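Rotation project, supervised by the postdoc (A.L.). Task for the rotation student: set up a whole-complex structure prediction and record inputs and outputs verbatim in this book. Inputs entered:
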Amino acid sequence: GQNIDQPTEMTATEGAIVQINCTYQTSGFNGLFWYQQHAGEAPTFLSYNVLDGLEEKGRFSSFLSRSKGYSYLLLKELQMKDSASYLCAVRDSNYQLIWGAGTKLIIKP
Amino acid sequence: ETGVTQTPRHLVMGMTNKKSLKCEQHLGHNAMYWYKQSAKKPLELMFVYSLEERVENNSVPSRFSPECPNSSHLFLHLHTLQPEDSALYLCASSQDTGGALSSYEQYFGPGTRLTVT
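Outputs recorded:
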C-alpha cells in the first residue's frame, strides 16, 4: 500500500529553527508537496520538490532524497503565525496526491 | 471573487436529507477535486475531474455523487448520509493533473463543515 509518515505534533520556540520530516512509500513518484494549514482554514501550498536537493523559499526550505523516500521542511526564525499543521503529499504514478496526516506545529514564546 | 469558493460553509443534515455542496474556481484551471478531511486523518481524495471528465473515483460510496457541468464549477450531491460522513469537505483546483516537472499545485477552497445527525 501507499504510506506517508510524518510526526503527529512538534513544539518549538519563537525565533528558533524546526525541521519536520516526511517519509513515503508510494507506487511511483512524480513530486512531493508541502502545504500549510491553519486551524479552520484551507491548506495552502508551500513548496514542491521533484529532484533531489534543497529548495529554499524565504524562511522555508524543503529537501528531498528520492533514494531514501525522505523529505523535510525546514522553518527558520519561527514566528507565532507559523503555528499550524504542515501536510506532506506525494504525487504517485497516476498523478494523484497521497497525503500524510499532517504535523501540528506549536510555537511557544 | 478570487481563488476557490465553496458554499455552504457549514451544513447540518439528517440521514434522510438530500443536499448539495458547491465549488467554484476563478483561476482558469482545468482540474478540480473533492477531498474529505476528518480529524487527525490524511486528506482523502474522493473525485478528480480534468476538463470536465471524471478521471478518478476512489471507491467512494454511491451516496456521494459528483457533478462537473463546466471547468469552473463542481458539485457534490449528498443523499442518505451516515454519521461517519461528518467531516470537512474540501474542493481544490489545479492547472492540470499531470506532469512531474511542473508542480501544478492545488488551490483549496475554505471547505464545507458537514455534520450528519
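Student's summary: Chain B touches chain A through 22 residues (CB under 8 Å).
Supervisor addendum: The two ends of chain B are 32 Å apart (CA to CA).
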